[in-house]
Amino acid sequence: MSRTRALSPHARIVLAVLLDAGGRWSHGYELARLADVKSGTLYPLLIRLETQGYLEAEWQQPAEGGRPPRHAYRLTASGVQLARANPPGQTSTRVVPRREATI
Amino acid sequence: MPVFVEVLQTWPAARCKRRCRPRCKRGDGAIRCEAASIPDDTKALLFTLDSLCGLMPRAVASHLLQPFASLTGAGAPFSKGSTAMHILDATMRRPRALGIACVIGAVVLGVVYLAIAGAPMRYLGINAGALVIGLTMLALLGRTVAAGQRWTGGAIIVMAGALLATALLGSEAEGAARWVFLGGLAIQPSLILLPVMIVAFCRTRSVLATGGIVAAAAAMALQPDRAMTRMLVLCLTTLLVIRRDRHVVMALAASIAGFGATLARADTLPAVPYVDQILYSSFDIHVGAGLAVLGGSVLLLVPAIAGWNRDVENRATYAAFGAVWFAAIMAAALGNYPTPIVGYGGSAIIGYAFSLLALPKLAGLVAQVSSRTSGTTDGSPSDRHLLVALA
């Protein structure tokens, strides 16, 4: 059973960066830099957000040859809602009174 | 492509990807490709190492759950459950591992009771130490017992000899000779040896084993120990109902005679604080103490209940195990006998851990798995994965 939990500061920042990107796809390294979050924190977070339906992800073929494809992420409609409801800078201990905020 | 990216091909999550694709396919591949796209080698290396640290716990968890993949994979009954559900289900299928979890839980609850009741700190330490000794014995003997089933009858005879020696040479109190002193501590051998003897007898019935049980009944009558002879009678009656044979009939007759002999002698031992009568008195101290004692006592029966429900082939064994500890709890409730595990006293703790030796390691996995999947049976997986997961 999922529980209502407060979003961590890192989750809020990553969501904010993804929200700023609009509908544009973002890559892991870029997200880590912009959000100033370590990749070891970022990827488990991205996996959770994607599992919960706040993110969509796809493999993108590189523009130039010889490079591997890259995994890209962007917010879904519910992810946009979540990001707007949880801007960065709020007290992290506040419990989000919404069932879907179960990160 | 930076050289270190090749390293990612061999890190645990990458290997995990090949084996547990549904669980972590999003993590490792994405990182590997992302790292390859970073032009600066140093930054790419740091990115990779940090990702490795972040995802390693997930990879380890996936690796630990790998033995249960056949039950937790896509299409399996628990595939939509949480990791906790998977661990719970796997635990319930491993009576011995479940027993370990239960005895640890019961000892912890017992320590909670002792702390609330204001028992000396030494008591708490002794119970904890007994748990360590019991689990160490279980770990050391667990492998040899599986290899030496044919020696069970002889082992029962040796243990019965130890009980007779206690009756004849042990320390006396108020006319009862139930204890031996080891390292300054009074130990009750019957609480350590009798449970495992009974459950082992249930699994390996032979003339030798029957002789051992008869000798144990005589030892209990000599000590005298009404609670232990009652335990024998209850367990053997249960066995008689489930699976009657001449060995059980003979052992039961001896235990009834032993019980009769203990009834003929008055049991004048007074109640010992933190040991006897605590099932009632704990609620007078604090409701938390009472619940700890009650909860710990119930925990002792969980392996028997779970095994009975999940392992039809070995129901007699679980019934005997449950009857042993139910009898011990009832004896503590009815008279001045030690409250097993939750009260002060290491003998019952060691005895409980020791009696887990007689339980099967795995409860009917072959039958269950073959009915759910095909060709994925696991003959005798180690409890190691489960213990690590529980830890």
Could you provide a short overview of the structure?
The complex is a heterodimer of chains A (103) and B (391). Chain A has helices at 9-20, 28-35, 39-51, 77-85, and strands spanning 26-27, 55-60, 70-75. Chain A has 103 residues and is an alpha+beta fold.
Structural features, described:
The complex is a heterodimer of chains A (103) and B (391). Chain A is built from 4 helices and 3 strands; from the N terminus they run αβααββα. With 103 residues, chain A is an alpha+beta fold. Chain B is mainly alpha-helical and 391 residues long. A 3-stranded antiparallel beta sheet of chain B has the order 1-2-3, covered by helices on one side. The longest helix of chain B is centred in the middle third of the chain and has 27 residues, at 121-147. The A-B interface holds A 27-29, 32, 38-44, 46-47, 50, 57, 62, 67-71 and B 1, 24, 26-27, 29-38, 47-48, 50-55, 58.
